[in-house]
Structure formats: C-alpha cells, structure tokens
Design a protein that fits this description.
Low-confidence stretches: none
Distance between the termini: 37 Å
Number of helices: 0
Number of strands: 11
Largest sheet: 7 strands, mixed
Shape: globular
Radius of gyration: 13 Å
Order of helices and strands: EEEEEEEEEEE
Strand content: over 45%
Length: about 120
C-alpha cells in the first residue's frame, strides 16, 4: 500500500498550489479519500474529503471556498487545489484513505492509510 503525495512548495499569500496523491496497492475506488494538515505540536486537522465516487465533497470551514478536492478513480489519484492561500495554511499536508462511512471520515483516527506528507509554506 502506498500513497505518494506531491505538489507542495513555497508560495506567497494569495497564490495557488495543487497537491496530488497517487495511490497503489489497494482498491482506490472503494475508499473515501481525505486531506489533512498538521503543524508542529498540533494534531492532524481535517481539510477536505471526497466520497468514493467523487459525487460529494466536504471542507473545513477555514478552507471552504478556497480549496477544492477532486479524484480520478481511473488514475488512482486524489487532488487538492488550493487557491487564495494564506499564511495560516502553512502546514504539512497529508492524504489519507479510509473505508469508514462518509459521515465519520473527517476524523483522522478513521484513516488506515496515510501518505508521507508534503510541506506547504505560505509567506505574507
């Protein structure tokens, strides 16, 4: 099982980044996918999630209207488009996969598989 996250980097406030997470070793289309983020000393924080089919998405209030999650099941890949970035978005971003019911998939402890994380730094 592998989740390979990429696309992080440094950007100025107001800029954009697109994160990708390529999955392998498990039936990707059977898993709810999520993005979380974490800063030093803090717990992993929910950012966005998407249903198995991609028909529904949900976001943390802090990113709603600025971030968009999407998936391509044919490519075993989930994306996070981040626009209008703010310094407080600075964190390590993790993609995760879970078989739990969608209503519980905002909880980090529900995720069995995690990517290695990709650092996003937003400067003011």
């Amino acid at each position: 099982v592998q989740l390979q996250a990429s696309g992080g980097g440094s950007v100025q406030a107001g800029g954009s980044l697109r994160l990708s997470c390529a999955a392998s070793g498990f039936p990707f289309r059977n898993y709810v996918m999520g993005w979380f983020r974490q800063t030093p000393g803090a717990e992993r924080e929910f950012v966005a999630k998407i249903t198995r089919s991609g028909s529904a998405t949900d976001y943390a209030d802090s990113v709603k209207g600025r971030f968009t999650i999407a998936r391509e099941n044919a490519k075993n890949t989930v994306y996070l488009q981040m626009n209008s970035l703010k310094p407080e978005d600075t964190a390590v971003y993790y993609c995760g996969a879970t078989t739990t019911i969608y209503s519980r998939s905002s909880e980090a402890e529900q995720y069995g598989y995690w990517g290695q994380g990709t650092l996003v730094t937003v400067s003011s």
